[in-house]
Amino acid sequence: PKLSNPLPEAQKGEQSQTIAHKPALNPSTFNTKNPASPLPSQISSLGLQSPAMSLLEVITMASSAEDRRNTSTQSDYPIILSANDAFVNLKPKLENSDATALAIPVTGWQLSQTDTELIDLGKKFSKKLRIKLKDANKFDKDEFFGILVPFLERIKEKVGFPVGVNSSDGGYVRALFDKVGVFMGRDVASLTLEACVSFEVWDLVEAFIVNGIVHHSSYSDLIMSLVAKNKCDLLCLSVKHAPDLGLAELLSTLKYFLSPSDEACGGMENVRKEWESQALLAVENASDRNLSDNKFRLAKEASILLMLAHDGFSVSEHCLHYLLASPNVDELILSSAIGKLNGREVMRLIRYLAKWLKKYEMFPQAAPCPKASSKLGLKACDWVPKLEDVARWLGLVLDENFSSLVLHPEFHEELKSIEGLVGSLSSEAKLCCSVEAVIEHLRNEAKNEQN
């Protein structure tokens, strides 16, 4: 069918020149899946929409804007209400109401006294803190604690939770926050988190993350602030606890780990020490003959797994483990983030993934140890990337940058090395599948004989 408004001849010629245009690729900064894509200026001259933003970015931006609108005004009910007390007081509005009706009018709905008092406390504190934060030059850390601690103590009085720490002790504020911080409303929590980051009260920021008080809409600003302030340990903690990561925060975190500054490497050393301490604890458990047979066998498996995750990786690569092993990273968003990496970052990511492939080839007995965290206290075992995680990431890297990887010879040696590792692992997997089929057949025969 013909277009109702065909392009003029001059624009047709311009369009054909645009399609034929192939800009030169820069190996250090490539980020182009289709070198023949028309330039934004040329597309706008044709009356089309500029492709500067992908559909995913448009959706993400719209979602972020909606979150900002939702948090700009305080809710009348900023805490999660307890309905147990309210349901007891509900009574039918009509004495002879139809029990089969879809909706029955009721009376007696009211908030509990505790919920009402918590809401009022939060509103007053939020209003005071918002006014103080507007005049940042006169508002300091000591004054912030001067209004935060009484607010938390009032919550403690309302809910009746003992803290177990003397108010004169150094860890009192953290202990108090751990106990009653969850009773803060979303708006109050977001504002308090903003103040904690601004005044660099990192122990309370950690408490926000660990206790799950960071709202979804606050994670983006939090991660950007942690990257800017080089708080790598808290950034890794955010990756572990965030329910999901958006494109902006995932890309920022990925770039931060792949291209760390000198200041960032200092903070990453703390993450490496955490992996080292977990690996040493696993070795100690594997050497303890007083453990039961099950725990001893579990300790040996965990020591192999943590040895793989610790040895041979740089400090920044230890941080990448958390991203690779996270179950909360959406594959579509991850694919888009990988597509925005430059050539140097892609090379580092490929070499990092190749290390994992080589380790799993050398130690085929390495396997996930989900029970090691609860039974032996080896929580790092939950964050060791599995072979399928490595394969998934590698597949996304190849899909997003295939043409660029083919065109640039500096990638060829790395890809050939990976090809050999993948071939070796595939051959071993085929053999294991055959053995698994034989074992399953023998199990079925044994069941039939028993029946």
General description of the model:
By secondary structure, this protein is an all-alpha fold. The chain folds into 2 domains: 70-81 and 110-214, no CATH class; 242-440, no CATH class. 66% of the residues lie in helices and 1% in strands. The protein contains 20 helices and 2 strands. The chain has helices at 9-20, 40-45, 55-72, 84-88, 113-134, 141-159, 172-180, 186-198, 202-210, 216-228, 232-241, 247-258, 262-286, 293-310, 315-325, 331-339, 343-362, 372-376, 387-407, 412-450, and strands at 91-92, 106-107. Strands 1-2 form a two-stranded antiparallel ribbon. Helix 8 (186-198) runs parallel beside helix 10 (216-228). The longest helix is centred in the last third of the chain and has 39 residues, at 412-450. It is globular and about 70 Å long.
Assign the structural class, choosing from mainly alpha, mainly beta, alpha/beta, alpha+beta, or little secondary structure.
mainly alpha
| Strand numbers in spatial order across the main sheet | 1-2
Helix and strand succession?
HHHHEEHHHHHHHHHHHHHHHH
Number of alpha- plus pi-helical segments: 20
Strand content: under 5%
* Number of distinct beta strands: 2
Region (Disordered): 1-44
Biased composition (Polar residues): 26-44
Per-chain topology:
Layout: H1 9-20, H2 40-45, H3 55-72, H4 84-88, E1 91-92, E2 106-107, H5 113-134, H6 141-159, H7 172-180, H8 186-198, H9 202-210, H10 216-228, H11 232-241, H12 247-258, H13 262-286, H14 293-310, H15 315-325, H16 331-339, H17 343-362, H18 372-376, H19 387-407, H20 412-450
